[in-house]
Write a structure and sequence with these properties.
The complex is a heterodimer of chains A (about 375) and B (about 210).
Chain A lengths: L2 H24 L11 H22 L2 H14 L5 H17 L2 H6 L1 H25 L3 E6 L2 E9 L2 E7 L3 H7 L1 H22 L1 H6 L2 H27 L5 H18 L7 H4 L2 H14 L2 E3 L6 E4 H14 L18 H33 L6
Antiparallel strand pairs in A: 1-2, 2-3, 4-5
Chain B lengths: L6 E5 L9 H6 L12 E4 L8 E4 L8 H4 L27 H5 L6 E3 L4 E3 L5 H4 L6 H5 L5 E5 H7 L3 E9 L2 E12 L7 E2 L15 H4 L2
Parallel strand pairs in B: 1-8, 7-9
Antiparallel strand pairs in B: 1-6, 2-3, 4-5, 7-8
């Protein structure tokens, strides 16, 4: 087994173990664990293992490792920490809370993503603490009209069951389901109608996640409908159906499109890296003499390409490495290289023709 | 659906007349509607009027994908290197800087790399990519190998390119002299070459 596999396996075991310890602590030795949610609990532990394993494997890829190190280093540069922290919050709010960059890519794409994202965040914020036993509710002693919330077994605020706060709290997953269903509808419509999306989409990567989110939301709403308006009709069946959709999604988390939830925050580190690169020395094209990128990034790329086994070095040339040629010159050189082949072919033809004429000047043959 | 195996892309920069039809048509493609992914470059503006269209060469082992820290660039089984996956691309520009052909474009406002995907909505159902469907001089040709060999008797297709110590094999072919038929096109060696424009290659256009 390779070192990278072992390292990832070790990290995955450590993080999963830490989560298990936190569950033991938060649920007070499993005292507050909801037995009906045990299936979710084990699926969550599996997902944690899988996600950590894949994440650490991803971090070991040469380009990712390079950016990971560089990103943290430029973030913690001395004298820049406060400004970087403020900038981090600004970027986090614009990129992650508002999804501004998706807005620029398309309005319907943004609406779909924003609704699904906030629906999932809300649902996760409610579900996971309940599944892990970190939050539970108890009626007040001698007063069945009031609930008290316990966090990690510590009593916190209390509220009347029939209050607005109670209604909003106990229907949190319903609001989340409405958000997700709205987003899924918009996303599915785009995938069914746009030729471009249809050409490149894959079932496992693009359609299955939408189906799963839709299935979770609809079966969850059916549970609420069953106990609210139908006197618990088919509740057991619906509960099992809902559990299957949730558990399948948790098991799918490390493998499919949902992995981008964990991958995407790396974008914040890249932004700092780009800022530092733009302010620092620039790489100058060794063919046309024009600056074209940050020198730091070009040097990092040369290192990464070497680690990946590429050999773009130019022996016996003052250019040293093809990475020092700007993209525009690379495009031009393709045509120049082809032209050189034609010129040499024509020169060869001319030589052959001259030779023929010299051997047979009168053209007798 | 994969691109049919018998259909291939052939480029011949020496036939380019700089009309920009490909640039306009490219932005009509449904996979990147409104964004032209083709580059039309003047080879060396001060010395020659020659232009060259540059599309993605769709490398067998794409450097752009390998250097992507977000693992956002995928090559489909039929050998087409797709644009960066939108959920993953972190707009670092590594791919833009690493591509030996200078193909990917960074759309900074969208925080997204986009590139030629051979008009996958069209080529995957056997239609010509937009650029090849409008190119009047057929500098961009999409069709069967037998067809182009029949049409261009002095040319042969090569899909290997040399950059210093690195050889890159591509899905897209470049037309070169049939008699010379080099093993590969030495692109890096072109740094030492004068640009074209010394003479007009009518014999190339006639073949």
């Amino acid at each position: 087994m390779s070192t990278s596999l072992l390292k990832s396996g070790l990290w995955a075991t450590i993080v999963t173990g830490l989560l298990a310890i936190l569950i033991l602590l938060g649920s007070r030795n499993l005292a507050h664990l909801d037995a009906a949610l045990v299936g979710y609990l084990f699926a969550s532990l599996f997902a944690t293992f899988g996600l950590t394993y894949r994440y650490t494997m991803w971090l070991q890829r040469p380009p990712t490792a390079m950016y990971w190190r560089r990103g943290w280093r430029v973030f913690f540069r001395s004298g820049h920490l406060w400004r970087n922290t403020a900038e981090w919050f600004r970027r986090f709010f614009r990129g992650f809370a508002l999804n501004i960059f998706i807005w620029k890519r398309g309005r319907s794409r943004w609406a779909a993503h924003w609704l699904i994202m906030w629906g999932c965040i809300l649902a996760s914020a409610i579900t996971f603490p309940l599944v892990f036993g970190w939050i539970h509710f108890e009626t007040l002693p001698g007063n069945f009209e009031w609930y008290r919330a316990y966090v990690f077994g510590v009593p916190t605020f209390a509220f009347p069951i029939d209050s607005i706060l109670g209604f909003v709290t106990f229907h949190g997953l319903v609001w989340a389901a409405f958000l997700v269903i709205g987003g899924v509808m918009i996303a599915m419509r785009r995938r069914m109608r746009e030729h471009g999306a249809a050409a490149v989409q894959e079932f496992g990567e693009d359609i299955l996640p939408l189906i799963l989110l839709f299935a979770i939301s609809v079966t969850g709403l059916m549970l609420t409908a069953s106990y609210t308006w139908m006197r618990g009709y088919a509740f057991d069946f619906l509960a099992i159906l809902h559990a299957i959709t949730v558990i399948f999604t948790l098991l799918y988390l490390p493998f499919g499109k949902f992995f981008h939830i964990f991958q995407r925050p790396a974008q914040l580190g890249v932004a700092f890296y780009m800022d530092v690169g733009a302010a620092g020395g620039q790489a100058v094209c060794r063919r046309c003499g024009e600056p074209f990128a940050s020198r730091m990034q070009v040097e990092d790329l040369i290192t990464v390409e070497h680690q990946l086994g590429y050999r773009y070095e130019l022996p016996n040339s003052s250019v040293e490495h093809y990475q020092w040629i700007c993209p525009r010159c690379r495009r031009s050189m393709l045509a120049v290289a082809q032209g050189a082949l034609w010129e040499s072919a024509r020169a060869e033809e001319s030589r052959a023709s001259a030779l023929t004429n010299a051997m047979d000047p009168a053209g007798f043959e | 659906m994969p691109v049919p195996e018998h259909l291939e892309f052939f480029i011949d920069p020496s036939r380019c007349i700089g009309c920009e039809s490909c640039v306009q048509a490219c932005s009509e493609c449904d996979t990147h509607r409104g964004h032209s992914m083709i580059h039309l470059e003047y080879v060396e503006r001060s010395r020659t009027t020659q232009t060259t269209p540059v599309i993605c060469m769709h490398c067998d082992s794409p450097t752009c994908a390998e250097v992507c820290p977000a693992d956002a660039i995928k090559r489909t089984e039929d050998g087409v290197v797709q644009s960066a996956r939108k959920p993953r691309c972190i707009a670092c520009s590594n791919c833009v800087l690493a591509c030996p052909f200078g193909v990917p474009k960074m759309k900074s406002d969208l925080e997204l790399m986009m590139k030629c995907d051979m008009c996958y909505d069209r080529s995957s159902v056997g239609k010509k990519p937009m650029c090849a469907s409008v190119c009047p001089s057929q500098a961009l040709f999409f069709g069967a190998r037998e067809e182009i060999e029949r049409l261009r008797k002095r040319s042969a297709a090569v899909n290997r390119f040399r950059f210093g110590n690195q050889t890159v094999t591509t899905k897209v072919n470049m037309m070169v002299p049939r008699d010379a038929r080099p093993e590969y096109v030495d692109v890096a060696a072109a740094m030492e070459e004068d640009s074209l424009g010394g003479d007009i290659m009518l014999n190339v256009l006639s073949t």
